[in-house]
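Quarterly update, task 2.4: adenosine-5'-diphosphate-bound model.
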Amino acid sequence: MAAYMIGTDIGTTSTKCVLYDLKGHVIAHADKGYPLYQDVPDMAEEDPEDIFNAVIDVLGQVIRKVKVKPEEIKGVSFSSAMHSLILMDENDEPLTRAITWADNRAAKYSEELKANGLGAEIYAKTGTPIHPMAPLSKMLWLKNEQPDLFKKAKKFIDLKTYVFFKLFGVYQMEYSIASATGMFNIFELKWEPQVLDLLDITTDRLPELVAPTDTIDHINDSYGKLLGIAQTTPFVFGASDGVLSNLGVNAIDPGVVAVTIGTSGAVRVVVDKPMVDPNGRLFCYALTKDKWVVGGPVNNGGIVFRWVRDQLFAPEKITAEQMQVSSYDILTQIAEKIPAGSDGLLFQPYLGGERAPIWNAYARGSFFGLTRQHTRAHMVRSALEGIVYNLYVVMLMIEGIAGKPKRIQATGGFARSALWRQMLADIFEQDVTIPESFESSCLGAATLGLYALGYIDELSEVKNMIGVTEVHHPNAENFEVYRELLPIWLRLSRTLEPEYKAIAEFQKKHTNPNK
Ligand code: ADP
């Protein structure tokens, strides 16, 4: 009899679903997108019903595609985006849309927490950096600015809890999503009393806590029939997309660091106990009860390369489109002609403020060191280098608490460029491996599911489920150049810091929003 495990990833822009056999081979996949509501500045919301419908839709699609029989589905496991918040009313109906991580309306409250010192105390227990992304800040914002709504809320939940509630009728949240709320004590695995006091709520208004490997069955009858899923099929609560992506790219063993450069970026490593950064700049989120992921999220990843392409290389972009080749490939070929270090042109990539490593929403980008000899080609290379320097600083912080890295597993759109991959190896002075894994968070969810249900003994068995496309070794000559430039780049960050707020405020005041 065939046997399958399903991994579903509830993402910010779409839900993806992959049906695997028990060896981790992809048998079928589906995805479904939904809108992000941005009615007012800084808002980023989703309709929980859209998300739930998308989950049902993609599960139905993969099951139908392969004509899977109910008894052949051994489990369904979940990944989801972190930090979402939904308020539920007395009748278990949503009082709000899902307020996502990208929503910045709580900024005033996270700044207050940082300024009054309470933020540092709370971070030291929760491992969630104090930031508007976190449900803690969002709840403070709602409590102060919409007190009636806040009072009316019977439960404060997240998107994955909502989906499980619709399927199973209980409010349960696993440790991984809980550890990204800013309200969960990662050392004691419980809701943090200091935060409950601050919000003036009791635990009965939060979901019951369960482990990522815990399971639940007896799916709501009508959804079970609709999908062809048996009442006995276990659903694994799973974890958050960030930590599961580490698992899905086989960055699970000690010292193996996952670097992602997609639109944004991240550096993460798995450790075997919760750890926090003395300066509150890194997150620590649960993967399982005894595996934790320490890392930093970076706003300025590939989106900066996109800006370089659109603003500095518009003609090349048009030519590439006419030739039907990737405009990024054309730009990389241009950058390749410039030596490592861009002849001393440095770039600070903070075009969209920054989270890790500097956690400064006012940060802005800059080129430094320009001479008449520098060309557009230098600018593109130094932009790519600047993105990697910034990630390297996050790596240094991680190294400070979790030890030296042994190897880098790198993923994201940037991996299509051999030049950029090599740059990562050279600046980090580490071997960089590009794992071949499709939808890494779905694979992470499915692997966690296989582990939870006893089909594999160790999470590291994921290594048999992915391939390797490329390995890059550091080039000593390039590394020497980067080693000379890095201290200047770092000092520059510190030198510019006091001016970020002034220039950002000027921009806010003088930018015509209707332009
Ligand atoms: P997302 O993070 O939104 O899922 P991707 O992982 O696909 O997106 O990353 C998109 C980014 O990858 C782009 O902004 C760009 O910087 C980079 N990218 C895409 N194609 C290439 C390429 N051929 N060479 C270098 N970088 C690329």
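Highlight for this quarter: The longest helix spans residues 476-510.
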